[in-house]
Amino acid sequence: MNRLFPVQDIGSLPKAPWLISYLRGRKPERAELDHLAKWSKLIGFEAEREVETILSEQKTPSTEKRLREFGSLFAVRFLESAGLDYVYDGEENRIEMYEHPIRHSDGFEFYGHVRSFDDRYYRKAACVRKVGFRDAYHLDEFKYVKQIAKRRIKVPVTGPYTLAEWSFNEYYQDRLSRDYDDPRKLKLDAKRDFLLDIAKEIIRPNLRSLVEAGAEWVQIDEPAVSTKPAEVPFFVEAFNECTSGLNCKLSVHVCFSDYRLLYPHILDLRNCSQLALEFANRGQSITLAYEQLNLLNEFDDEREVGLGVADVHVDDIETPEQVRDRINYAVKTLGNAERIFVNPDCGLRTRSWDVAYRKLCNITRGAALARNKIS
Amino acid sequence: MTGAFPRSEALVELTRAAARGKVSENELEDGFRKEVLQLVMLQTEAEIDSVVDGQLNWQDLFRPFSEILTGIRPGSLTRWFDNNTFYRKPTIVEKVRYGGGSLDRYFRHNLLPKDRPRRAVLPGPYTFALLSQNIAYQSFEDLIDDLAHALRDVATKLKIAGYQYLQFNDPSICVSEPSQDQLAAVRQAYEVLAKGMDAKTVLHTYFGDAGSIIEFALDLPTDSIGIDFYATSVDSLSEHDFTKELECGCLDARNSLLETPDGLKKLIVRIQDAVRPKGISVATNCDLDFLPYGVAARKLNLLATAKKIEDG
Fold first, then answer.
1. CA distance to partner chain B, nearest, from residue A180 (Å)
2. pLDDT average, residue stretch A62-70
3. Nearest chain B Cα to A191, which residue?
4. Helix A204-212 × helix A139-148 angle, to 10°
């Protein structure tokens, strides 16, 4: 991939409505079949007829497996059709970025829902035993995408810090509790133990399995990384623990955070060649929204940047010209066009398929405009 | 209890259904009312001294006040301190005041027992002002002053409605390192809020080290201070003459790990010996709504255990 401003996805897409209905044991509604027909034509999805057949049949383990694969295929074709250079499968078969890895690992129990905001909740697990590897939870998914993708692949994997931060830490805290008088120190040290064990016992074997199966690029997703600024060095330690010696490209995705909190610590991330960051959400003024790009210059951080050019929390569609201008601003700020990749701020799973597609298409058009300007 | 309690799994499903338009407002309201009564029962069984309604229908600490007060609109989603929880940043669009409207939707005193002290929770003026987006006031001091007057009016009405404890949640005081000018404004705000109030007033601090502001907090005209001992060094409080009641946040509401009686005893004794407060009551360090319902209920029972330790 030699052209400037390669376009990449960050990870999640909405779930295909016909796949959701099927997995919940419902007959697909007319609107869901229409969705399948419309998008199949638009994105060149070659398995429309097979999907229709499966949807009309009794659900069995083998048809479920097949339909799940078609969910992945659908997302891959969707991203390819929008013109992306790097694709994955929209995480169509992951429950979501936290619960999926936790349910496939040892040491955790789910106690119930906690509120994220308003009437939105997530299931939060407690670590009740030493954590451990149960299965390579992204391996089959990756092998399938590798088999069908026509573009290069980047695999998104939830990082150890986010898994630790979004879980209750019972086992590691209880294990240390007798030795501590100060609950603050106890919590901090127990968090580090918990995090490093997740990195070593869960994430590292998963990454190794992907690399052994041929993954060339893995993106570690760490949306929680700036939640507790004092723990950013722990994140760095955990990243290095789970990635050392792996022979593939590695990057980190962070979003909705004050990136200043990450510096200078993230300069110590070894083997991390790109930071994929959210910016477009920060307002219409390019200067203000992209102000924290300057941190890379300030700290002589010469890594690639995955430049967030589309806001994933609004339905307004960025125009190609807006995308071009954001890229141009980044080129001017960093002084090196070759370091810039282009992407939405984050996964697009909260948008409709239509909005997601229009956003992605305009990102690729904007990247082409920026390329033309340079050449 | 410090205030907010998590929704049960049944209520989670009901609110989700309501958000999808599958249940009516009346059905949802009925669900909230039943759950407040259930929570009252849990508190009675755990022998909690002052009873709360659990703020079950509050979407965040500030949201009710965009309805109760004038001049406030809910804004963008923003992280709630260092949690994986978000609130809508209040946007201050015009002068803030309380017009005297009903508070019953968000303060369920009618469902609380009359034979036990009742506790109402309000946002502290500093945290409210600091975490808002102000596009109406010329200065931070003007905003906090108006917020204090509006909250005083609300608090007065709550006192008349039968609340004996008025708790002001002001975590930013110990998290955000207020400037001297801001501290002066906070002092003035608490003079407005607490002075002459015929109820027990509580400044509740959490998520941060209260040691850094304890001298200032002890000088405010509230009766008690709530301190999060999972964020505060016990030793940092030992050199102060603790002339107020201490609401001792010794149960961790941000971890599902249940404290052991021995561990609690050790911590409470250590706090009593080091801080020597005028009086002490045991509490969670912050709201229990960071936990799933079942775990929160077990922590509530642990409060009874902690109380026996403190009494003994």
1. 10
2. 96
3. B255
4. 30
Supply the ipTM of this predicted assembly: 0.94
> Residue B121 in contact with residue B289, Cβ under 8 Å?
no
| Structural domains of chain A, with CATH | 83-98+136-374 (3.20.20.210)
pLDDT tens digits for B44-55?
A: 999 999 999 999
Whether pLDDT at B288 is above 70: yes
Q: Cβ separation of A121 and B16 shorter than 8 Å?
A: yes
Residue A187 with chain B: CB contacts under 8 Å? 230, 252, 255
> A170 contacts in B (CB within 8 Å)?
255-257
DSSP codes joined into one string, A146-161: HHH-SSEE-EEEE-HH
CA distance A7 to A32: 29
User: Percent of chain A having pLDDT more than 70?
Assistant: 100
Average pLDDT value over all residues in chain B: 95
Bridging pattern class, strands B133-134 and B119-123: unpaired
Residue B310 has pLDDT above 90, yes or no: no
pLDDT band at B156 (very low <50, low <70, confident <90, very high): very high
Beta bridge partners of A344: A310
Question: Angle, to 10 degrees, between the axis of helix B293-311 and the axis of helix B261-275?
Answer: 50
Those of residues 191-230 in B touching chain A at CB distance below 8 A are: 229-230
Whether A143 shows a pLDDT value over 90: the answer reads: yes
Cβ of A111 within 8 Å of Cβ of B256? The answer is yes
Region B93-108: mean pLDDT is 97
- The reply to whether B78 touches chain A by the CB within 8 Å rule is no
Assign B125 to helix, strand or coil.
helix
| Contact residues on chain A for B85, CB-CB shorter than 8 A | 114-117
Q: Residue A253: CB partners within 8 Å, gap ≥ 6?
A: A10, A11, A156, A219, A220, A221, A222, A223, A275, A276, A277, A306, A346
Share of chain A above pLDDT 90, in %: 94
Whether the CB of B256 is below 8 Å from some CB of chain A: the reply is: yes
Mean pLDDT of B260-281: 93
Do A111 and B294 count as a contact with CB atoms less than 8 A apart?
yes
DSSP 8-state symbol, B168: E
Query: CA distances (Å), A343 to each of A323, A326, A347, in order?
Result: 10, 11, 9
Chain B interface, mutation test: which of A96, A102, A108, A115, most B Cβ atoms within 10 Å? A115
Give the residue on A whose Cα is nearest the Cα of B251: A183
- Chain A nearest C-alpha distance from B6 (Å): 7
- Give the number of A-B residue pairs with CB atoms closer than 8 Å: 82
Question: Cβ–Cβ of A168/B256 closer than 8 Å?
Answer: yes
Q: Compute the 3-state secondary structure of chain A and give helix, strand, coil in percent, each to the nearest 5.
A: 50, 20, 30
Ordered domains of chain B (ranges, CATH): 9-311 (3.20.20.210)
pLDDT digits (tens, 9 = 90+) for A221-233: 999 999 999 999 9
Chain A residues inside the 8 Å CB shell of B59: 117-119
How would you class B236 by CB atoms within 10 Å of its CB: exposed for 0-12, middle for 13-18, buried for 19 or more? middle
| Prior bond of B171 cis (ω within 30°) | no
Least confident segment among A175-184, B36-45, B48-57, B241-250: A175-184
Say if CB A45 and CB A52 are below 8 A apart. no
Asked whether the beta carbons of B139 and B147 are under 8 A apart, the reply is no
Residues A6-64: tens digit of each pLDDT: 999 999 999 999 999 999 999 999 999 999 999 999 999 999 999 999 999 999 999 99
What is the arrangement of strands in the sheet containing B224-228, beginning at the earlier edge strand?
B119-123, B165-169, B200-204, B224-228, B245-251, B279-284
The pLDDT value given to residue B14: 98
